[in-house]
Structure prediction request, 569 residues.
Amino acid sequence: MKKEFKIIAQLIENNTRVLDVGCGDGILMKYLKDNKNIDTRGLEISKKNVQVCIGKGLAVIEGNAEKDLQQFPNLSFDYVILSQTLQAFYNPEKVINDLLRVANKAIVTIPNFGYWKVRSHLLFKGTMPITKNLPDEWYNTPNLHMCTIKDFFNFCSKKRIKLYKSIALHEQKTSNINKMNLNLKNLSSELGIFLIENEN
Amino acid sequence: MNTEKNIKKIIIKKPLTLDCGKTINNYPLAYETYGKLNEKKDNAILAFHALSGDQFVSGINPITNKSGWWSHLVGPNKSIDTNKFFVICANVIGGCMGSYGPSYIEPSTSKRLDTNFPVITINDMVNAQYNLLEFFKIDKLFCVTGGSMGGMQVLQFVANYPNKSKTAVPIACSASHSAQNIALNELGRQAIMADQNWNKGNYFNTNSSPDKGLAVARMAAHITYLSKKGLEEKFGRKLQERDNLKFSFDADFQIESYLRHQGSAFVDRFDANSYLYITRAMDYFDLIKQYNGNLSNAFKESKTKFFIISFTSDWLYPTSENKEIVIALNSSGSDVGFIEINSDKGHDSFLLDVPDFLKSVKNFVEANY
Prediction:
């Protein structure tokens, strides 16, 4: 299991209810179910991945987060996970609001567009950046709303969303992000992992 | 119509009060089984058949000598592997393959019930079939499954008996029969009743049954089981054994010939009055109304694990109606999976060799057994 999922799993308490939005082939869900006694549900857009998840005995629904999150009642989960898909939505703000409606806490990870390799690609090559976490060309990428760790940090304070935990990931190493080191982490990290909660 | 010796039956003594208010007892329920019930009795699957189906799920149907209606899915080494699972299927009450229905001969009068048969519902069908658990001494089924009207019975079963099945797989169905579907069923019924031979349902002793009406009903229904694209690919405008149009009302086109064949083959194995009663039961099905407008209340008490399947080209029980069930299950916090299978074969996809569908069911049952 990749490092990002290990960090997410550590952020989640045992014996809870979790919704994994964009659960892919269900690796994280299966881990949470088997190792932390977590009652998991998944939402996944790819039919092929849904097939794989069903074959693992996971409760996964084929659907699109922007249309299908609304079917889940308020606070029906303890946690909701959104791994590296926020940037692919038409309306990321609405999705974040929906996540914090269906669960108390949300774990959101974003590929950091502020990472120095991304910046230098655009600066020196003058073409849209292609990296390990952003592998597609500009004309076929599903990403619509790229953001940086700093953007997401600022978004949360502006929208009165409580940042419970902010973790920077770079080459398997993790570190905490805070106001003091924000600019540095925004430059040096490939991925941002955020545990957020409604302030109200 | 029935070759009685090939039909297994239980006589149900326990009285059943039907939704119409009438109570029945000592009535027959015809069934068939595939595979073996294991010692722990935890491998039983109850399959519910659709409108024109019967208890002969797999292998060769001994009455029609054709393959069972779900032989792509159920059988040795199939998705529902009868080397491993014990599959039970009963002919619904109202049916014409040995269960209590319009063709049942009342012992006191030695006459067929015909239109004296009470109007039954999906709920009545399910309650009658529940007696099979007692008969086989099964405390809890592994799975209840079925497509179309069979899927409706799955939903009703879990609502009525919340913890009598570990899993449930309703396929290509709806929690509430739509106006469009009621309209299509009414078309079929009117075709039967407009046939003079129907004779207000008392055709058995007249030596002439409403074959034409029933055939038209079947033809109309059959179109609704296919899709525009499927028809286009299979038939297009191809002519039937001729090079040119005949300028007549013969079956010039292959699709006409195909439908005529479907109609005439159906009357050989199906009873017109059964068709009236079963379509009526489907029309009356409204699980949402049964639970006062909130479908999730139907599943509130249940721990059954659901897997819902729909098909892209099914316009009779479209994905949107299947998704309503998913939404209700999510609202009640149930354990539910859902997939929409890509297929051009319309509503009939659940009966056909659609590899993604067959794989999905296999994945689900294997992962949960």
